[in-house]
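Anyone opening a protein record will find just a pair of labelled lines. A complete record is shown below as an example:
=====
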Amino acid sequence: EVHLVESGGDLVQAGGSLRLSCAASGFTFDDYAIGWFRQAPGKEREGVSCMGSYGGSTYYGDSVKGRFTISNDPAKNMVYLQMDNLKPEDTAVYYCAADVFCPGTTTLQADFAYSGKGTQVTVSS
């Protein structure tokens, strides 16, 4: 059973940074693409970032390109999302997610097959 647990969400001022972590278990880590999507109140889910299987290509949503960086540590089954220059519009619940492939590469989608329970990120202005 795929199990994803997020941590690291917090309240931060605009311009600040946060690093989210995701602990993955229940599947062969390298076999899956793992990434992040977010959902703000009253808004649709938005694909944030994804790394292909075996540490393959990385993809980012247009709104976070140049500010967010995805990385992983296969030895620890961990995935990270470094978020810099945060903006109030980044406020959302962030979900760690996994699938066989990253959902959409030209435009990253949010419809991963598996996801965790989420961690809240709040950016104050």
